[in-house]
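Teaching assistant here, posting this on the class forum so everyone can see the example we discussed in section. The complex has two components, and the goal was to see what a joint structure prediction looks like when all of them are supplied at once.
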Amino acid sequence: MAKSKPKLAVWKFASCDGCQLSILDLEDELLALTGEVEIAQFLEATRAVSEGPYDLSLVEGSITTAHDAERIKMVRQQSKMLVTIGACATSGGIQALRNFRDINDFVAAVYARPDYIDTLATSTPIAEHVAVDFELRGCPVNKHQLLEVVTAFLFGRKPMVAGHSVCMECKMRGNVCVTVAHGTPCLGPVTQAGCGAICPAYDRGCYGCYGPQDTPAMPAMSKVLEAHEMKGRDIQRILRTFNAHAAPFREESQRHDAADDQG
Amino acid sequence: MSTDLALQIGEHALLARAEFGKLIDALRGQGYAVIGPTLQGGAIVYSEISGESELPVGWTDEQEAGTYRLKRREDEALFGYVAGAQSWRPFLFQPRRTLWRAKGSAADFAIDPDVRETPRFAFLGMRACELKAVSIQDRVFMDGIHPDADYSARRDAAFFIAVNCARAGATCFCVSMDAGPRAEAGYDLALTEIIGEGRHDFLLEVGSPRGAVIASLLSLRAAGDGDAAEAEAIVERTAQSMGRVLQTEGLKSLLQENLEHPQWDDVAERCLSCGNCTFACPTCFCHTDEDVTDLDGQAAERHQRWDSCFSLDFSYIRGGSVRPGIASRYRQWMTHKLANWIDQFGESGCVGCGRCITWCPAGIDITAEAAAIRASIEKD
């Protein structure tokens, strides 16, 4: 007798689709995944849609329009578990840069017909709109962590996703610290692990794709960046990338506003 | 040049620089994977080598709190640097490993303990502080009623070639911790590199029967009293030039009696809680287990990985983390390392290698933090 498989839905809001592609990038595991769950809604992969309710919804993207602010409520209503995936869904994404400026200025600068544009003044994470059961970080998410989240859901356990710094996985990988040995500014100490410390492995500083670690020491981080010849304006910029709206990064970047004005 | 010297434990002879490569050959010939100093990523990194050409000939390092730079030496020393970026710890106590796998069936499950062939490492260039660090981890992993089988197997198979330090770095304080700069015990062979006018030799001392076997495969010549005295003088000069001092007298009670000292809050303002100190430390042994399953639940694995008292999850119990603040985490690390370790294992957990100082991106200095607490107490 075939068991009834849990229904999985994948939703897209304001985003680049890269995290959804991480699901498709699970090439070797995709068949096993479809053996355990019914992919009921995943427009990036298939037009076939079956109706809700859904047992697990994976939500990519941030909320940037009034329409999406309503649509996410519908998703929540139809989902037993709702997991957000990626920097857009968990912190507002790169498009949250609008949060620091007047949206009308951007619209006027970018679009020939600004009156065609109907958008919110901010880009905000899903959790600012509806209850979220788990947030998976990354820009994009790590496909192995994504598989772990789905597997954990299937067995009703907590996903094994560490909240500690990138530095720990950097040292576990055997990398030499780029800040200490090369003087390269790096956000690894305040950034959550998960990527496998890719950038330091190639002699680059961490760009903070996974957002703030559990207890990021932001003012201490700024002092280290300053000691490695980053000016306030540069520090503000490095904190305002994919996770610009994440509270620790946002608040620390705002501390450097004065420096920005001196630009 | 004599090749007929049969050295006993405690005896020494000279190995000429030109003959040095044969030491690596001999170790490899005996089936060891030789792990030695190499240049990688702008630092000295201990890594597998197949010959002497991979050694950091003529290189040294400059270390300070939060900075490390490679520099050229004026000579062609093989071991002219101080302590490598990482200790030998990852080779014995692996950053990640699988403890066991389990396969399920309809009625039962079977456990596969994931036993693998133990690698036979020869560590070439262990500093006295690093040898001491291994002896400290031995006590953690091998003593007691539940010895760690993987660590024990790797440790028992490993061959140790110590190198007595000819130089102290700016973050070194092994003398304070009674852990160097001379390797006193625990090695199979010990070397002192002697570079002088017209000579480049190693004074080689035998520390074990295994060491004597390897020594018998080398082209050695008898060492004179002058050679031993010169080697002694090199190490003595190093001992006199330590970059840092940690005053250990009364340190245990000083820390244990000052758990609410304002210095903990002071350091917490600088500390990144990134955990680099704990992963660069050669004695930190904390690890955690993680259980994973495959999608259909028919296979499970238990993994072990390094963990750090600087992570929030480390002190997570039902309801939350016991050490939510950074001050409490730094205090936990330092008081354990320098004080509570003595209650737990009978000796300090610090060997004075200086890695926690050098490799802290914020340049926090354990010797300075201890001194600050001491100074404020003595002033009162």
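For the discussion questions: Residues 166-257 of chain A form one domain. Chain A has a mean pLDDT of 95. Think about how each of these relates to the inputs above.
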